[in-house]
Design goal:
The complex is a heterodimer of chains A (493) and B (162).
Chain A (H helix, E strand, L loop, with lengths): L3 H19 L3 H25 L5 E7 L2 E9 L1 H24 L6 H20 L3 H19 L5 H32 L4 H11 L2 H19 L8 H7 L2 H28 L3 H23 L4 H22 L2 H32 L15 H14 L6 H15 L3 H25 L16 H19 L1 H17 L2 H6 L4
Helix pairs in contact in A: 1-2, 1-4, 2-3, 3-4, 3-10, 3-13, 3-17, 3-18, 4-5, 4-10, 5-6, 5-10, 6-7, 6-8, 6-9, 7-10, 8-10, 9-10, 9-12, 10-12, 10-13, 11-12, 11-16, 12-13, 12-15, 12-16, 13-14, 13-15, 13-17, 13-18, 14-16, 14-17, 15-16, 15-17
Chain B lengths: L1 H17 L3 H21 L3 H25 L11 H27 L11 H8 L1 H21 L7 H5 L1
Helix pairs in contact in B: 1-2, 2-3, 5-6
Classes of the chains: A mainly alpha (493), B mainly alpha (162).
């Protein structure tokens, strides 16, 4: 049944170009949104009860006969599926109005659905080579989506992204090949038990380094981040939201953490490397964001910085650190997609992304300004919004792990975040209304609906965060903090 | 013999990267791929060798050359020459690291284990069924990418050209 997470978007993606011939707008809009809503509801209502007693493996059937496709659903994968579905739903809702200007909506939805199928496949598999394959499905779709506008900048950014992503894939594939050669298996269970009996820590260290470079490039961790500030702003706004909101987390953070924590096992050396890279990302991203004049580029640098927090939290490896890291991953998916969608609304209304040319837009676009303020305050960690709680958990986890210097630096990074988001809000929405924008109108209905939904979620989750932690984050964090044991003890992994 | 093949593979790959003439670059790549195919054959990876020769050296080269023949070289592009210096430098550093790391590493790798056995078809269809779905996804993404990026190719000349 959980196979539907992959097959529904895949089949819809196949049908989209044909449906586009019948109806250019209505059918693609309707079906894409219906699919996303279905996946969101499905992950909450049907999939959640399945993992009440821990992870499950489901066998796929083809005309009644079992085939060798077995999918793994546990707390961590369900948490990711839920995050993907939630952001995707907001993005497809927003695309109804926003993508009108680009044309070829059916093709756009087809690529988007394929990217989602790729991400869902990656999250549900328990096999290293499948991770690589579904990573590529999502990546190939995302290269095309980044270049969807067909302009010079879009194509250049997409090419740069493609080239660096190919390097990342090569590192990942090389590491998988070495592991296959060593253990004779590709399934998580086979690899974990194979590596346990072999006792070859240098080779595992080498493979970890390759994975770190590969997935680090996909996550855009410093120093592997150079492609992101080009690729994410160049894409159409909903795709920027998808890429920054979920893709870098699924193809980078999820894959890396699943392998490092559940298959290889977290070592002190790896903890050090992850926390150092996380901290470097926080500062490089934040300081670079401070100097940006292009609103989407500022948000892109901010993504590098915020993913640094996620890696920092998960890298500590303590149960609280993992919960904090996952919570921040979820929160960042919400507010960063919100901010990118708002930036898209502003760009569509004014025709510019330059913060210097904006000013006073709150008078003309009150909803966009209000939702953007919520997103900005949330990402900067202002209580009682959701971003505050996740950052607080990460900082408490750092203090508990006696990493006081890192805890202090994490707070400092958050202050810089507040600084550049205040600059963004001030330059874009507050102050005197620039005469050029006298005739600017508020974003259309569906675009506003998507941003209001995400902004409300930021507030609600901030208020009821213990419930979210208990029902969604704890099962996910349990899987990660059990380490290799969960893989070794789980028959059929 | 293996060393000779490896040197051939690397040399032709480098020439493919450094050559400024696209046609020459494509042919260099095809030759490099033939070297790789011979290495595959000699290492008993027969299927990989067949695919390498037929698809990479054959089909893809034909596609490259056709695409190059369809483009016009109507403008001179001024390029930075720095890559001529940087590339060999990085390559040399990489080779040194490779020799140092691999020499130590290979000694520590235990004998290769093999568990997934069977004929090529069996492995592909019965053991790696899920991979097929992923492969369909990748091919499909490629097709849709071409459809999306080459839309209105006539109107938007820039997009089509890239």
């Amino acid at each position: 049944m959980i196979f539907l997470f992959i097959i529904v978007p895949l089949v819809l993606a196949a049908l989209m170009p044909l449906l586009g011939k019948i109806s250019k707008r209505f059918l693609p809009d309707l079906l894409a949104n219906a699919t996303m809503l279905f996946l969101l509801v499905f992950s909450v209502i049907s999939a959640k009860p399945l993992i009440a007693n821990g992870g499950v493996i489901q066998q796929a059937f083809w005309f009644g006969a079992p085939i060798n496709i077995r999918l793994l659903l546990d707390g961590f994968s369900l948490f990711m599926l839920f995050t993907i579905s939630l952001v995707s739903f907001a993005v497809t809702l927003y695309s109804i109005d926003y993508m009108e200007q680009y044309g070829a909506k059916a093709n756009y939805y087809a690529l988007l659905l394929l990217m989602i199928a790729g991400m869902n496949g990656l999250v549900l598999t328990s096999d290293l080579f499948n991770i690589y394959l579904f990573l590529e499905v999502a990546a190939v779709a995302s290269y095309a989506l980044v270049a969807f506008g067909q302009g010079h900048d879009e194509l250049e950014a997409s090419f740069k992204y493609l080239m660096l992503s190919a390097v990342a894939s090569a590192f990942i594939l090389l590491s998988i090949a070495i592991i296959f050669g060593l253990t004779g298996g590709l399934g998580f269970g086979a690899v974990a038990s194979g590596l346990k009996t072999l006792n070859i820590k240098y080779v595992v260290g080498f493979c970890s380094g390759l994975f770190l470079m590969g997935f680090g490039l996909k996550t855009a961790l410093v120093p592997f981040h150079t492609w992101l500030p080009d690729a994410h702003p160049s894409a159409p706004a909903p795709i920027s939201a998808m890429l920054s909101g979920v893709l870098i987390k699924v193809s980078g953070v999820y894959a890396m953490m699943r392998i490092f924590l559940n298959v290889f096992g977290l070592t002190p050396a790896l903890t050090t490397v992850l926390t150092v890279l996380g901290m470097a990302s926080i500062f490089v991203g934040a300081l670079a964001a401070l100097g940006q004049k292009d609103i989407k580029r500022m948000l892109a640098y901010s993504s590098i910085s915020q993913v640094g927090y996620v890696i920092l939290g998960l890298g500590i490896g303590t149960p609280l650190g993992i919960i904090g890291g996952l919570f921040h991953l979820f929160n960042h998916a919400l507010f960063k997609s919100l901010l990118f969608l708002n930036a898209g609304a502003v760009e569509q209304s004014t025709g510019t992304r330059s913060l210097d040319q904006m000013g006073g837009l709150a008078k003309r676009m009150p909803l966009t300004a209000a939702t953007s303020a919520i997103g900005s305050l949330s990402i900067a960690g202002v209580p009682p919004l959701n971003g505050f709680w996740s950052k607080l958990l990460i900082i408490i986890a750092l203090v508990q792990a006696k990493m006081h210097v890192l805890a202090f630096l994490a707070v400092l990074g958050s202050v810089i975040t507040l600084w550049y988001y205040l600059v963004l809000q001030h330059n874009a929405f507050f102050g005197k209304l620039n005469d050029t924008w006298k005739s600017v109108k508020e974003a259309p209905f569906w675009m506003s609906a998507a941003t209001v939904m995400l902004a409300l979620l930021c507030i609600i989750i901030g208020l009821v965060f213990p419930m979210i932690i208990h029902s969604w984050l704890q099962p996910a964090a349990d899987v990660l903090s059990s380490g290799v044991a969960v893989t070794l003890n789980f028959i059929g992994f | 013999m293996h060393l000779f093949l490896m040197i051939g593979l690397v040399a032709f790959s480098i020439m493919a990267v450094l050559s400024r003439d696209l046609l020459r670059s494509a042919i260099n790549l095809a030759v490099a791929s033939i070297f790789l195919a011979i290495i595959f054959f000699r290492m008993n990876a027969v299927y990989a060798g067949v695919f390498e020769v037929s698809v990479v050296a054959g089909l893809i080269t034909v596609l490259f050359i056709t695409a190059i023949a369809l483009t016009r070289g109507d403008q001179e592009v001024v390029e930075n020459k720095r890559h001529l210096l940087i590339f060999p430098l990085f390559f040399l550093i990489l080779v040194i690291i490779d020799i140092l790391v691999m020499k130590n590493l290979l000694g520590k790798i235990p004998a290769m284990v093999s568990s997934e056995t069977g004929t090529f078809g069996e492995v592909l269809w019965k053991q790696r069924t899920f991979d097929l779905i992923g492969q369909i996804g990748v091919i499909f993404a490629g097709v849709l990418a071409v459809l999306a990026l080459f839309r209105q190719g006539e109107k938007n000349h820039h997009g089509g050209k890239e």
